[in-house]
Amino acid sequence: MNIWTVANQKGGVGKTTTAVTLGGLLAQQGKRVLLVDTDPHASLSYYFDIDSETLETSIYDVFVEPEKYRGQMLLDSLCLTKVKGLVVLPATMALATLDRKMGMESGKGLILKKALASVKRQFDYVVIDCPPILGVSMVNALACSNRIIVPVQTEHLALKGLDRMMRTLKIMRKTMPENIPISIVATMFDRRVNATIQAYTRLTQEYSDNLWRGFIPIDTKFRDASQAHLPASIFAPKCRGVFAYQKFLKDIASEG
Amino acid sequence: MKDKHEFAKESVVEDYLTDLLTEAVTEPSIEKVIAQKLLDKALVSANLSDTNEYSRNVKGKKPDSAAALVTDIEQKIAELLPDQQIIEQVDKEIQSEVEIKTSSLKVTAPLSLQDSLDERFQALFFEVAGLTLAVPLIELGGIHEITKISPLIGKPDWFMGVMLKNQDKFNVVDSALWVMPEKYDTALADSLNYKFMINLGKTPWGLACEKLVNTVELNKSDVKWRSSSGKRPWLAGMVKEKMCALINVSELVELLQLGESSK
User: Fold this and answer.
1) CATH number for the domain formed by residue range(s) B4-26+113-258
2) A188: helix, coil or strand?
3) Domain boundaries, chain B
4) pTM, rounded to two decimals
5) Does the model's ipTM exceed the 0.90 cut?
6) How far is residue A14's CA from residue A39's CA, in Å, rounded to a whole number?
7) pLDDT tens digit string along B39-82?
8) What is the rounded distance in angstroms from the CA atom of residue A55 to the CA atom of residue A91?
9) Interchain CB contact of B7 with A (< 8 Å)
10) Across the interface, do A106 and B17 touch by the CB < 8 Å criterion?
11) B5 touches chain A (CB under 8 A)
12) N or C: which end of chain A has fewer CB within 10 A?
């Protein structure tokens, strides 16, 4: 089972869009995909029209009662989507209380890793959407992944957020010995805007080791797809944004 | 000069991440194995001591009459409270009340450590700044590897801070500073490498130590006992052969709770 975590400590950079589109593309390839929402805003859950506040269980329960929500109990907490092979572990607002609840308790960053290990036979891919804040949820998501995808909007402020994110990952590597590949994906690329070109140039200069040599163009189809509660790869399979994500998927698949 | 990407509070972030991810599955170090073995011995010793005490208490009672008494009580309880759920509920309430009362109990010194120990007893030997100290195993609460210690403001210098271990909080004492403040200078402080915390009895107090030496079975006659009313009531005596201090845990805890130094 591959576990990909989509993370950035800056909001609005395209994390949910990246997670959903990659999940949709993988499901269309016949893979069994689990999308995990770890953001208290629950954007990914709402994307699929899941109102997690009305559900009995969510990822919050997995964190609070980790021994209970493993295996079948975890599978029972998943929500189906309109897409075959694509299911969602939804988030709730209660996730925002996790840091206060768990604080710095030892080992609380490994709950999700253990939970996902209990359903590893049921899925080919897990794609985790992170909150834009470094906390228990994000640490859990990063700790269980075998690839980290960092979407970064091609603009000045987003690059500052990227600096922070990369620093966090560097510190985490001291604790997590595995050398997990990190892919920085430039998003919302608009070649008509000078600031975009400048930001992308800086990315190529400062993050050449991790930067994916492509970009996700700005595309209104992503917004339309979210309104239809469908991954863009299904809603508008031929749009340029989807094409770019397909290229990214192909490139990371070739890395192994 | 600081890396331009470095966080202003780099260590805070590092501590945070390390704490969340500390449950790493690693091979236990030799020192950890030693600590665990010593702790296991301590537990066995404590259990044996409990068993002996129980044996002493039941001595003289006829097993049949004891069994009959238990059955009788059980029957009476069954008559009074036929609902098993009520029994369990009451049991829980009593248990929690006992726990609350026990936790609020002040640790009082026994009349004499010498009197409370068996003729032969085991002691754990550990080192602090070249000084070897010993603690009777029956008074040992546990041995924990020192992890992150959070200092508290307004505490004595020898109070290193609070260490979290699972759900428990321990008050960690800088043993070198507490035991020999007159010798404690910057050089000594820099040379200290505390690795373990010796938890004292069932209290939240723990002595920081650099090295766990071993556990040794001693006869009471192996110890030159001191009077607890002396200058250092925490010093139960000297183990003659090793010329090291045997700690009276109850007295020591009482001093720590009062915020007193060793003198």
Assistant:
1) 2.40.50.180
2) coil
3) 4-26+113-258, 31-104
4) 0.56
5) no
6) 13
7) 665 555 545 444 444 444 434 344 444 445 445 555 554 454 44
8) 10
9) yes
10) no
11) yes
12) C
